Amino acid sequence: MMKRKLYIETYGCQMNFADSDVLAAILAPRYGRTDDYKQADLILMNTCSIRDHAEQRVLNRLREFAAMKKRRAGLYIGIVGCMAERMKEELLEEALKVDLVVGPDAYRSLPALLDRLEAEGEKGLDVELSKEETYHDIIPLRAAENKVSAFVSIMRGCQNFCTYCVVPYTRGVERSRPADSIVDEARRLFEAGYREVTLLGQNVNSYRYNDTSFARLMAAVAEVNPLLRVRFATSHPKDLSDGLLEVMAAYPNICRAIHLPVQSGSTSMLKRMNRKYTREHYLQRVEAIRRFLPDASLSTDIIAGFCGETEAEHQETLSLMREVGYDSAFMFKYSDRPGTFAHRHYQDDIPEEEKTRRLNEIIALQNELSLACNRKYIGRTVEVLVEGVSEKRGRQYIGRNTQNKVVLFEPTEAVVKPGDYVQVRVTRCSAVTLLGELA
Ligand code: SAH
Ligand code: SF4
Ligand code: F3S
């Protein structure tokens, strides 16, 4: 029998992208994956609730799929991921044409829900959160074209309860995946030709499985092979320890790139955000990074216009950005999220145009900082892990250096393939890429 076709459209963070490969594995006995939604018998939207805008995008796209369903009997539509968890049965409202709503911890129930849907036309809902589920025994069916670099989930959930954030409500409590299963997966990936793994969690520094801390886990993954690059995301500034920085420094294949979301440069804002650190603590962690890993790049996340943010507090964010000199940043306007502490107790009182102004200032400054960081590489030779070929500006190879900077270089006589390490002399740069030639 021809297998039916599954199309997964993924929104949100890397954890959702990793989960889509878990979903594909769970459904593999009955569905083959396609990247053409027009061919699909089952469409799953793996959704994100982090900002209102993310949800609106999904709802707009869902309207397109729902219209398609009218023309095609037998097409099923499922909403999975964080919106499924946040909105629950609301998504089963008739007009949306959704057949399945399944939260991030309930993916194993999909086959049973599909059975009932196919046999009896019964819509399926499972949004039960779990204290244990890590899908550690499921080998993700990786769809990404890039067979060089893979994401590996090492934990799920978050219980930091930053006051603006919906994640603790959509992903449940924090739990760590068994260390052995992580190291095994890294080893299998290396044997399959992968040369880079990124260990994923909302707050990887608090990973712990029995006696294995995050620092121990990192060391174990780094020892799989010196040719396997190891990255991780995301670190919470409140518990990025010197111990971890020491381990990083000891293994050249642990990448010199740290994503350390600051959110705000103002201690009073950080308190309102329940981030559990001060501006001074954050700067002291940055200082430790510079001490242990002098060549590390630093990136961050910043929120503009959170509840009650004064102009002075906004200026503190700008001054902290200058002081750190970030290589790059993800920058957002605050978006009020139902259910969060901020939604219940604070007022979303910064006018939209003021949020926009502050965000634009932050973005403009970051562009300057990124360019300044990249300029320092001009004239230097960097090791690049080749990921593929970019056709954007003629034919160029594309890869990244240990600092996670995208490096483009021209093809030469030398045969270069994805997964190779090459030395590239940087000759030019923009705020987002380094350009160079094979050294
Ligand atoms: N666990 C990670 C981040 C997860 S969400 C951490 O703690 O750093 C990614 C980013 O989205 C956050 O760092 C934050 O900058 C942003 N974000 C989260 N909630 C938001 C909201 N309500 N409005 C705007 N940005 C938000
Ligand atoms: Fe959200 Fe804070 Fe958890 Fe990050 S640490 S996912 S920002 S609650
Ligand atoms: Fe979005 Fe959920 Fe990730 S809200 S950012 S997909 S954990």
Task: Give an overview in words.
This protein is α/β, with parallel strands linked by helices and 439 residues long. The protein has helices at residues 14-27, 52-71, 82-87, 110-120, 167-171, 179-191, 214-222, 242-250, 267-272, 279-292, 311-324, 341-345, 352-375, and strands at 4-10, 31-33, 42-47, 76-81, 100-102, 124-126, 149-153, 155-156, 175-176, 196-200, 208-209, 212-213, 229-233, 257-259, 297-304, 328-333, 381-390, 396-400, 406-409, 421-429, 433-438. A hairpin with a 5-residue loop joins strand 18 (396-400) and strand 19. Helix 11 (311-324) runs parallel beside helix 13 (352-375). The model has no long low-confidence stretch (mean pLDDT 96). Bound molecules: S-adenosyl-L-homocysteine (SAH), iron/sulfur cluster and FE3-S4 cluster.
Structural class: alpha/beta
CA radius of gyration: 22 Å
Based on Cα principal axes, name the global outline. globular
Q: Catalogue the unreliable spans.
A: none
Terminal residue distance: 53 Å
Widest sheet: strand ordering = 2-1-3-4-5-6
| Fraction in beta strands | 15-25%
In short:
34% of the residues lie in helices and 23% in strands. It is an alpha/beta fold. The longest helix is centred in the last third of the chain and has 24 residues, at 352-375.
